[in-house]
Design goal:
There is one protein chain. Strands 1-5-2-4-3 form a five-stranded antiparallel beta sheet, with helices on one face. It has helices at 8-32, 62-75, 114-126, 154-168; strands at residues 93-95, 104-111, 131-138, 141-151, 173-178. The protein is 37% helix and 20% strand. It contains four helices and five strands. It has 179 residues and is an alpha+beta fold.
């Protein structure tokens, strides 16, 4: 039986010839192409006229600023808490329910230590609950309250109550939620 094999030297010559032919077919036409010239003229471009509105800003008189600061000082303590409600300005307020309550939350716990409160929030979020932290001053002490919600119906908050009690082994309570 005869094997039809090409020796190594002949094989290298054939492969090299195919490679050279491919290079010639690809690159030789590039040598004969004419260079492309961009003929667009940018010098004749007209800048559009933009009419700017009058942006004159008048500063309020200093007396007005002082009065506004004094009104704010009357409602907020040096730490940024509302003197009446004890809630940090800009945070939701958790209070006892009244007849006019329109939104509710489930308060899980209240901590004097912020790290403990944040750990519970992280645990709740990891478990898929929409937990958040509310900071307020109660009897002069800063308290960090962990809550779930808000809920638009009290029934929804009640439905969560027993599940949360079992899940976190705590006694949560329903509170009113106000922005």
């Amino acid at each position: 039986m005869k094997k039809n094999r090409m020796d190594a030297k002949t094989r290298n010559i054939v492969v090299g010839s195919i490679f050279l032919a491919a290079v010639l077919i690809i690159f030789v036409p590039m040598l004969f192409d004419k260079p492309v010239q961009i003929t667009a003229e940018i010098d004749d471009f007209e800048k559009p006229e933009i009419e700017l509105p009058d942006l004159t800003i008048e500063e309020p008189p200093l007396e007005t600023l002082y009065e506004a600061g004094a009104r704010l000082d009357a409602h907020v303590d040096v730490d940024g808490f509302d003197k009446e409600t004890g809630v940090r300005i800009g945070e939701p307020e958790l209070t006892t329910e009244v007849a006019e309550t329109k939104r509710w939350a489930v308060q899980l716990a209240s901590f004097a230590n912020e790290n403990s409160a944040q750990n519970l929030v992280d645990q709740c979020i990891a478990a898929g609950d929409q937990a958040w932290l509310s900071v307020a001053k109660v009897d002069g002490k800063t308290m960090h309250r962990v809550a779930i919600g808000p809920f638009l119906r009290r029934d929804d908050a009640e439905d969560q109550l027993s599940d949360l009690e079992t899940k976190y082994d705590i006694k949560p309570m329903i509170v009113a939620y106000q922005d």
